[in-house]
Amino acid sequence: MMRFFASRLLRAAITIVMVVTFAFIVLRLSGDPAQIIMGADAPPEAVDAFRTAWGLDQPVWLQYFHYFGAIFQGDLGRSMRDGRDAIVLVTERIPATLALTIPALIIKLGLGIPAGITAALHRNSFIDRAVMLLAVAGFTVPSFVLGLLLVLVFAVQLGWLPSGGQESWRHAILPIITMGVGGAAVLARFTRSAMLEVLGQPYIRTASAKGVPWRSVVWGHALPNAAIPTVTIVGFMVGSLIAGAVVVESVFSWPGVGRLLVVAVANRDLAVVQCILLLVAATMVTANLVVDLLYGLLDPRLRNQPKRAAA
Amino acid sequence: MSAPLVSLKGLRVSFDGQAALRGIDLDVAPGESVGLVGESGCGKSVTWLAALGLLPGRASISGSVKLDGQELLPARPQVLDRVRGGRIAMIFQDPASSLNPVHRIGKQITEALRLHRGMNGAEARAEAKRLLDQVGIPDAARRLDAWPHELSGGQNQRVMIAIALAGRPELLVADEPTTALDVTIQAQILTLLQELRRETGMALVLISHDLGVVADSCERVCVMYAGRIVEQVPTARLFEAPAHPYTRGLLGALPPLHGPRRPLSAIPGGVPEPWAMPTGCAFAPRCAMHVSACDANVPEQVSLARNHRAACIRATLPAPHPETVYA
């Protein structure tokens, strides 16, 4: 167990380092922050001064080295635009993003999983077809299209809800629905196929053959097995709680981490972009780690693997 | 034969319009052991899955299944749940995948004890341990906490048998219980089933494609072909006086243990597809004794001797030597 955990932790650390390195290189290849932030008309001396001030005149490998050294001292750099600490800039946006992504996650789970189970239990019936039709629709329509459609109907036509901004809880409704619907559709399809796979297994027939009522067969025998593959997708959704709202936040002008990322990338505000990517990588990697541990909890076959390998 | 425990009459099953069972008539007496043989796809397993309502929803089932005179086709789910595992238990071919991988062995046994004998907690656990002892699993107390993947195939099948015994059934249907196991383990499981039958007095239906397995374990053998029973015969008579040409063909395909070596005879042709079933006897196209009358009607079972019936209009003729039938 300790060895399993240690190897996963090491892999997680390597993943984060790779993400940060990749972002560092791409951002420096794709545009000059000094030119962009100072503006195209800025005198060359001012641009040079800016470069020197931010260390951009140093060789890239040295910048990279300094950057990593600073990370290990807990310093994620400062925004080139307003000079504030990048980490402060990012963390103050997190609550706004979570205010969208957590309710959306609840919708995904609360709608997607029961819909998938119901469809599987009524395979090939009207219910199944209806659920799957909705799921395919929800899954294929991109969130920016769905977002705009919802704005068109509920904000522009009906005037029930605001089309963007963050003034009240009513402003959150449309972005939450936009995100929740797509995720619920993905989860419904996934849960359905996981359930169908499990319901066809011989142990389900065994449970029925020993007189277990069908309700208990579904709850006690099928669901715990179907949960194993479903956890992967849910883990992915949890992992994208912080970064998963980039498009929706942009559509609805919601001042969260996603919008900050879009603005920071456009401005080549290196420290801010890297800080966000570091955070995203860390949450994703943590969620994956939790999923791996959950697998062990849900599936005794995986739990015993190291022991069997040793034997 | 005393009043049957289970009585199947005209049992028919089709999947998406394709007939899988074409009228099964079979009685099982209390305490009796019956073998059901036939090649893959002849409907051996489907017969009992249908009788217990274990087929998927797309199967359409007709006919009659009576348990002690009570009709089970159709029966309310509550009635079926009492019968399954309580009065008729069933074990399956692949023991490793027939046990739920995420439940411990003990839990899977006590679940049946709770459902059929109202046992809970320590009482159920003690009984589960006794059942594991009874089916010959060593270190039963510790094995209660094992997961199915930690046991061998043979041990898993013993666990399946323990679960089946938990409800004290009057009939155990064993669907190819040894097919997935090593030969030595096969013999152990078959011996165990015989011992348990003696101890508990339950009836046994043994489904197998292996005539040898059935002949060793059963008092009576039913030979199935293309969704029907073509011959019912006491095991002793099976080898002496097989009546249906298909049964004779099966016996002719067995390697002899004594006498000179001879080439094994195979039955020519293949089983007709469900959508191309002959109007008369389904075996007629492959039959060495075929005459034109065979194609007229599906043959009824005719009585040949006490407890010996065959569905063949030519069954009363003396059997030619197997070698000459399919030379």
UniProtKB/TrEMBL annotation, chain A:
Alphabetized UniProt keyword annotations: Cell membrane, Membrane, Transmembrane, Transmembrane helix, Transport
Its membrane topology: Multi-pass membrane protein
PROSITE patterns on file: ABC_TM1 (PS50928)
Signal peptide span: none
Domain (ABC transmembrane type-1) ranges: 94-295
Alphabetical list of InterPro entries matching this protein: BPD_transp_1_N (IPR045621), MetI-like (IPR000515)
Positions of transmembrane segments: 12-31, 98-121, 133-160, 172-190, 231-251, 271-298
Localization, UniProt: Cell membrane
Pfam families membership: BPD_transp_1, BPD_transp_1_N
Location (main, coarse): membrane
PANTHER family documented for this protein: DIPEPTIDE TRANSPORT SYSTEM PERMEASE PROTEIN DPPB-RELATED (PTHR43163)
Protein family (similarity comment): Belongs to the binding-protein-dependent transport system permease family.
Name of protein: ABC transporter permease
Organism: Falsiroseomonas oleicola
Lineage, broadest ranks: Bacteria, Pseudomonadati, Pseudomonadota, Alphaproteobacteria, Acetobacterales
UniProtKB/TrEMBL annotation, chain B:
Domain ABC transporter, first and last residues per copy: 6-251
Compartment(s): Cell inner membrane
Main location: membrane
Keywords, alphabetical: ATP-binding, Cell membrane, Membrane, Nucleotide-binding, Transport
One Pfam short name: ABC_tran
One function term, GO molecular function aspect: ATP binding
Family annotation (PROSITE patterns): ABC_TRANSPORTER_2 (PS50893)
Highest taxon of the lineage: Bacteria
Membrane topology field: Peripheral membrane protein
Family to which this protein belongs: Belongs to the ABC transporter superfamily.
Protein name: ABC transporter ATP-binding protein
Classification of source organism: Bacteria, Pseudomonadati, Pseudomonadota, Alphaproteobacteria, Acetobacterales
